[in-house]
Amino acid sequence: MKIIGKTKFLMGTVFGLGIIVFLLSVIALPMLAKEVALTYPEYAYLKYPVLIGLYLTTIPFYFALYQAIKLLKLIENNNPFSEQAVNALRKIKYCAAAIGVMYIFGMIFLGTQNALHPSIFILGFVILFSCIVISVFTAVLQELLDHAIKIKTENELTI
Hints:
The chain is mostly helical. The chain has helices at residues 2-39, 47-76, 83-112, 118-158. Helices cover 87% and strands 0% of the residues. The longest helix has 41 residues, at 118-158. It starts with a helix and ends with a helix.
């Protein structure tokens, strides 16, 4: 019974994270882009490409959040050792890798435009490093879970 409370807390955290990113995308990013375009008119032409790039990264982000909710529901329904859980982890891994690749291309693009300010580079590098960590961690969990499923299946066959 304790696991249900923990999964509900995690689901709430996932929903909260989704809402925060949505609000930042809808309210803060356009305002920030407008302010930067007004402050640095020589980079105003980058306003929409950067916004589009950031909005494109939200697609795999929200797909990964959806997969995390699916995984939490599997855990809640006492079915964590299943192929659906392995598939959810695989999709989360690919989403993290996709976000990392998008940030690499974005930083290369900004570098070619001489607009890669050191603070933007550091922020992009932190996000890229986080994506790598999430991708590797979910890959390890995926392999572990796949191995546990194989052991479970073998045990069920021997009994």
